[in-house]
Amino acid sequence: MATTQTGSVFDPNKAEVFGDDFVRALNNGALCLMVSIGHRTGLFDVMSELSQPATSLEIATRAGLNERYVREWLGAMTTAGVVEVDPATTRFTLPPEHAAMVTRAAGADNLAVFAQYIGLLGGVEDHIVECFRQGGGVPYAQYPRFHEVMAEDSNQSVLSNLETHIVPLVPGLADRLTEGIQVLDVGCGRGRIMNRLAELYPASQFLGIDLSREAVEYARRESQDKDLRNIVFDISDLSNFDEVATPDAFDFVTTFDAVHDQAKPLNVLKGICRTLKPDGTYLMQDIKGSSHVHNNLDHPIGTFLYTISCMHCMTVSLAQGGEGLGAMWGEEKAREYLQRAGFSSVIKNELAHDIQNNWYIVRK
Fold first, then answer.
1. How far apart are CA 264 and CA 332, in angstroms?
2. Which tens digits make up the pLDDT trace of 171-196?
3. Class level of CATH domain 123-363
4. CB proximity list for 145: less than 8 A, separation 6 or greater
5. Most buried by CB count within 10 Å: which residue of 126, 315, 320, 364?
6. pLDDT tens, 28-86?
7. Whole-prediction pTM
8. 359 vs 158: CA distance, rounded Å
C-alpha cells in the first residue's frame, strides 16, 4: 500500500481490478459498434438462417455484402464469443442461443437494436465535448438516425407488448377504445404506437404531436399506407403547451419516453393536465431510476442510460434553451413535476420484461 498526495491509500489490487474492468469495457464498447453493423446489414439474420457453418465469402454472398468487410466483422464477433469458428475449416456459426437475442426473428428480445445507440452517440462526441467547454446543447438535427433507432427501441419495449401488457395497465381502457374515445400522444416520434392503436380501435380518434418534421412525415406516410382514417399527426413545439392545449379535449393521453427530452417539461405536463378530461387518464412511460445517483448504483443499465442522457436527452433540451432534465431525472422528480402540473393521483407500474421503464397511470 502507498499513500497518495491527497492522503488516501493507494491499493494496487484495486487498481488491477479496475484496469481489467476497463479493458473489458473497451472490448464491449467496440463490440457494440460491430453488433450495430451486424444488425443494420442483416448479417445476424443471414447467419441465423444458414443450415450449416459457412465461410466469410459464403456469408457475404448470401447477405449481398463485401467479403473483406464481412471477414473482419466475423473476426470481431468470434473473438467476442458471439460467433463460433471451426479452426480446421474457418467456417463460422451463429449459435441459436445467440441468434435468439440478436436477430429480427427474436422480436422484443433483439438486443442488437440497442447497440445502435453507441455508434449514433459517438457521432456527436465532438459537439458534446464543445458543450462541456462552452455550455449549450446539440440540436436534434445533429442526430439523423435517432428517430429511426428510437422507433426500433419503441418496437421492443412498447409496440410488441401494446395489447398484452400496456393497454391492460389502465382498467377498462380496451373497452373504451373499442367504443370510441379521443386519444392524444405527445412527442409521438414516428407514430408507430398511435398508428397501431388506430388500426386496432377504428372507433376512436387519435392525434400525434411531435416537434420533428421528419418523424411526423414518416408517421403520416405509415398511416396513409395503412389507410387509417381516424388519426392525424401534427408538427408542433410544445414549449407553451400549458397555454395552447385545448381544455378537457381528450379521454386518454400518452407520452412514451418523451417528457424529459422537452425544452419545458413542466409546461408539457401542465398542458396534458389541461387537455385531459376530468375523468380521463394519462399514461406516462419514462426511464426507470432514481433522481439521486447513489440510488442508481445497482441499476442494470445505469451507465448506458446516463450516457444516453448526457449525449442526447439532456443536450437536445438545452439546445432549445430548455431545462435539460435528462433521461435520469428519476421517479422522485417525475412525481414532483406531475404534482406541480396539477395531477392528484400517480400510480407506478413496472413490467417484468422491461428493465428500462416505469409506467405511470396519472389522473387529475
1. 18
2. 999 999 999 999 999 999 999 999 99
3. alpha beta
4. 116, 120
5. 315
6. 999 999 999 999 999 999 999 999 999 999 999 999 999 999 999 999 999 999 999 99
7. 0.90
8. 11
Q: 215 burial class (0-12, 13-18, 19+ CB within 10 angstroms)?
A: buried
What residues pair up with 3 in beta bridges, in sequence order?
A: 9
Which three cell numbers mark 106? 427474436
Report which DSSP code applies to 50: -
C-alpha cell at 178: 373499442
Collapse the DSSP code of 89 into the 3-class scheme (helix H, G, I; strand E, B; otherwise coil) and give the result: coil
The residue ranges of every structural domain in the chain are 2-106, 123-363
Topology of the domain comprising 2-106: Arc Repressor Mutant, subunit A (1.10.10)
- DSSP string across 153-210: HHHHHTGGGIIIIIGGGSTTHHHHHHH--EEEEES-TT-HHHHHHHHH-TTSEEEEEE
